[in-house]
């Protein structure tokens, strides 16, 4: 536990101490601590070790009947003992990440009001207009460093889940702590409740949000603006991460605030960075340069065009003009290939609308454009059909196929389909985890293009140097750093990302690269230290119990 945090907190005693998840040690409180802190008699008489606690928790965790029950079990643990929760999560991240985040968090969000136990984070609703600053002041501390906020309109690939979407910021912040060591006391999940268009939720007696249609236009913008301004007053040190906003608002809000406050949108920038890192790794297998690649996206929303913009920047870094770089990125949306002859294109699609013949569907676009990489960010399950995968394989010796939509039920294809239908030639990555696949005697370990490889490390770097703004250069360097950490042994088994078990080390390296960019761009809020690696290490939270006496 962070010593600075302990020093700054007013120590509570007795029952109040046991009810504080940040301070509670449960049965590990020593005899002397029990006497000094008024715990005598409030705990079973025998003091245990943390290792014994871990065994008890893991035995019970593995007895849970399904993934949603495991999610609830871990949520209850987090609500009573955060140190133990994070200790177990860090040691079992590969097993538990799919539980606390995608895909299980999607299932949890769909029924969040039905499994609600204890509030975590803040709910800021339309009822709070004019007094959002006071709502934020109801939080227990002003020493807040990382906020993840959603309005619940585009939760993973599941659509509008309204107030049930609070599960996403909660899960993301758990990964900030587990994957990068951001202290949990510095983190705050927030749900902006502006209504929902989900009829099922509006008719659900257990829905936890306000029962009305979403507000749009000036009223919505004024509400978000009040929220952003209130955060600057109440939590001036906090990074604001926008999460799972619909495209109609995501691009606009990012452009409006990115030059004014410390903020980024993980769906746009974080996804782009993790995909670019995967592409860099894939090209180590194909032995072909980035500027020779042609990318075709299924889905032209915030994730897809965000990836496209970062790829364009990466190609330009190799000496190619912007106009030519954009010709390497093509998009298919619900109406077909994005081309100039189409009318009423959304603004974020216009830069990728090429002067080209219109193709009505993905397959015809593949046959015409002949892409080297196919990237799915559509949320349409099984949209990479057998014919599409086989066509990509006919065009390319080693087709790059990324099925990135979350959760698993929304993936454009499975790892097994990609490897089998390509006769073991596909370089595959997905948004949610898939098990290893054996084909013709060779076992492939699919890479998971999980944003958790990027945003925790970026957040750690922001925290380390107190950067005033978050720039695209930081995500570009994060992508290059992530790709550089993929080993040859990973590539040999088809994995284009490092093992999840190494993610804390990965995050630290990404944080260092972000700090370097912040100093280069004169955005850091501190003096440059002689040892950036040590600067990062000094703020990393380790989930171990402190000695209170």
Protein architecture, described:
The chain is an alpha/beta fold and 549 residues long. The protein has 2 domains: 49-261, 3-Layer(aba) Sandwich (Rossmann fold); 269-450, 3-Layer(aba) Sandwich (Rossmann fold). It is built from 25 helices and 14 strands. The chain has helices spanning 3-8, 14-18, 31-36, 50-61, 67-80, 82-91, 93-100, 104-110, 132-137, 167-180, 199-202, 217-234, 247-257, 266-286, 302-316, 322-326, 347-350, 362-369, 386-395, 415-421, 455-465, 472-484, 488-492, 503-520, 532-537, and strands at 122-125, 146-150, 187-193, 239-242, 263-265, 295-298, 329-333, 336-337, 373-376, 400-403, 427-430, 437-439, 442-444, 447-448. It has a 7-stranded mixed β-sheet with strand order 8-7-6-9-10-11-14, sandwiched between helices. It has a 5-stranded parallel β-sheet with strand order 1-3-2-4-5, sandwiched between helices. Helix 19 (386-395) links the parallel strand 9 and strand 10 (400-403). Helix 5 (67-80) crosses helix 6, helix 14 crosses helix 15 and helix 21 crosses helix 24 (503-520). It is globular, with a radius of gyration of 24 Å. The two termini are 15 Å apart.
Low-confidence segments? none
How would you classify the helix and strand content by structural class? alpha/beta
**Portion of residues in helices?**
40-55%
- Shape, per Cα inertia axes: globular
Distance from N terminus to C terminus (CA atoms, Å) equals 15 Å
% residues in beta strands: 5-15%
Task: Determine the CATH superfamily of the largest domain.
Answer: Malic enzyme, N-terminal domain
- The appropriate CATH architecture of the largest domain is 3-Layer(aba) Sandwich
Q: Measured on Cα atoms, how large is the radius of gyration?
A: 24 Å
User: If helices are DSSP runs of H or I spanning 4 or more residues, what is the number of helices?
Assistant: 25
- Average residue pLDDT: 96
Query: How many individual domains?
Result: 2
Kindly report the spatial arrangement of strands forming the biggest sheet.
Answer: 8-7-6-9-10-11-14
Biggest β-sheet strands, sense, barrel: 7 strands, mixed
What is the CATH level 1 assignment of the largest domain? Alpha Beta
Number of β-strand runs: 14
CATH topology of the largest domain: Rossmann fold
